[in-house]
Structure formats: C-alpha cells, structure tokens
Amino acid sequence: MTVTDHEIPLAVRDFGGPGEPVLLLHGLGGTLEAWDVLELGDHRLVAMDVRGHGLSGDGPWEWERVLDDIEAVVRHLDLGNPAIVGHSLGGMLAVLWALRHPECPGIVNLDGLRSAENDPDNYPGMDPAARDRELAHLKAVFDAQAASTGQPLPVEFQGMVPRRALTERDGKTYARPGTELLEAVRYTPEFRDTIPLLRQVTCAALVVIPTQDPPGMPGGELMEAFRRGIRRDLADVPSNVHVEEVDAGHNMLAEQPKAVTTLITDFLAANRPSGTSSL
User: Fold this and answer.
1) 138 contacts 116 by C-beta, under 8 angstroms
2) How many of the other CB atoms lie within 10 Å of CB of 223?
3) Are 166 and 155 in contact (CB under 8 A)?
4) CATH code assigned at 79
C-alpha cells in the first residue's frame, strides 16, 4: 500500500500477523523487499521504503523528517507502540526512534553503528600510514559510487538492481537513491557514528555486528581494525543494550537469515510488552 496522508507518499508492505507490531527499516540503497526473508512468528510485521528509496517519494534527507515519515506509517496503520528492527541505515533510524520514543518496547540494530568511512581513531591497532592510504582509497570508492547514481544505469546493469529500486526519467533508467540523498546522508554525525546515541537509549536494544568484511569492499586490515573499534566502543554500553555477533558480512539478512531471525525472535520474546502473551 501507499500512505498518502503525509508530505511525501510512503510505500509500505503489511505482512500481517496477530501479535505485537514490528516495523522494519532497510539500509541505505535498499528497499522493503530486504525483509522478505524474515519470519518472526506471530508478530505483525510492517516494512516501509524510506524516503528516496524504492517506491516512496523524494524529499530532503533530514533525520527528524525521516522519523516523521515513520510516525506517519505508524499512525496510518494504527501500530501503536511498535518494536523497530533496522538494518544499516535502518538500524541508525531505530536508535533515533528510541530516543524520540523511550517507551518503545525494543529496537534491533543490524550493523547500523558506523559508516565504514570514518575517523582515523576508529581503526585501532593499524599502522597509521597504511590506515590513511586505505581510508583515501575507500573515500575514492564511495565518491565514485555516489557519482555513478547521478548517471543513467546501463542496460546491462539494470538486471542487477531490484526493479523497485529503479526509476525512469526522460526515457532513461536510474538507480535510487540518487546522488543528492547519498551525499546528504554520508557526512552527517548520525551516519558516521551512532554509538554515542546508542548510549542514550533507555529501552531494550539488540545490536548485531558482523564478523566478516562487506562484499566488494577493500576489506582486509582496514575492516579488521574497523571491527576492533566497534567492539572497543560497545564494551561499556549500558546494560539495556545487548550485543551479539553473527558469522556474516554487512548483508547479514541475506547471508544468514536463520541466525538473524533467531536473534531477533529471541530478543522480542524476552522484551514482550507487559500485559501481552505469546499466541
């Protein structure tokens, strides 16, 4: 369905279910179809395309306005007080939602803590010269990726992109999101490092981090150091934040759907809102 009583149209898929509501938020460059692999028992699952993605409308990327989009979906579908499960960018939004809604029954953040392109101090234990070379290379890769989204997608590559993530303009095909959105997100404090915000969350939270390099990334020593930095900074998060690791890369939903589903299911069961019971 499409939610139209909002400043931009918002594409939504309601999977149904008789239990407590869970809202699913995909990552940067993804769509709500990322959640098709997820089965969470009796929960009422609802996924949405965030602004600038999939079949949702375009609008300036401002974190508070994206949270307003989520509010519009929650209100339109009468979800009440849903748990939020997000991957990557969606996990960052889950953290921000929990700050806006401390009464939230729980959030799940699937590798949505930090952009891989980050401050040098977040790659501990790596030779500084090698680190700086790898970071410069990573920046160049991301620069090229962002620039390419402003160009028509060649026919031979269109089959590699989900149809939902393509848009037509002037008879040409482009991938969503576009360069403007990517550049607007890329250097925001929230995208670069969500861990300081995670420390302020008071509801139950599950963080799932990968143990493997993202596919197609330079990887190697830089990503190993990146993971060390994540583990270092999660070592003393508040007790309401539970941290798990999964033997997968950043695209853990596709790589390890059963393991991720089990972690989410167990977390939601342990943090079921008071006054409810499993059906």
Assistant:
1) yes
2) 21
3) no
4) 3.40.50.1820
Pull the structure tokens for residue 227: 């993971």
Does residue 157 lie in a domain region? no
The identity of residue 79, as a single letter, is L
Q: What are phi and psi of 142, to 5 degrees?
A: -70, -35
The values of phi and psi at residue 136, to 5°, are -65, -40
pLDDT per residue as tens digits for the range 43-82: 999 999 999 999 999 999 999 999 999 999 999 999 999 9
Residue 220 lies in a domain: yes
| Residues 260 and 253: beta-carbon distance below 8 Å | yes
CA atoms within 13 A on the CB side of 157: 11
Tell me which H or E stretch contains 173.
strand 172-175
Domains: count for the chain: 1
* Cβ within 8 Å of residue 154, ≥6 positions away: none
Give the global pTM. 0.94
Residues ≥6 apart with Cβ < 8 Å to 27 = 34, 86, 87, 88, 89, 90, 91, 112
Name the phi and psi angles at 38, rounded to 5. Answer: -95, 135
**Confidence band, pLDDT 50/70/90 cuts, at residue 217:** low
> Which residues 6+ apart lie within 8 Å of 44 measured at CB?
14, 15, 16, 17, 18, 19, 20, 21, 22, 79
The answer to whether residue 6 sits within a structural domain is: yes
Which positions ≥6 away from 183 have C-beta within 8 Å?
146
- Domain of 8 in residue numbering reads as 2-124+179-270
Contact yes or no for 264/40 (Cβ under 8 A): yes
The H-or-E segment that residue 166 falls in is strand 166-169
DSSP string covering 153-203 = PPHHHHTTS-GGGEEEETTEEEESS-HHHHHHHHT-HHHH--HHHHTT--S
Structure tokens at 275: 């006054």
Residue found by looking up tokens 């098709």 in the block: 36
In a domain, 171, yes or no: no
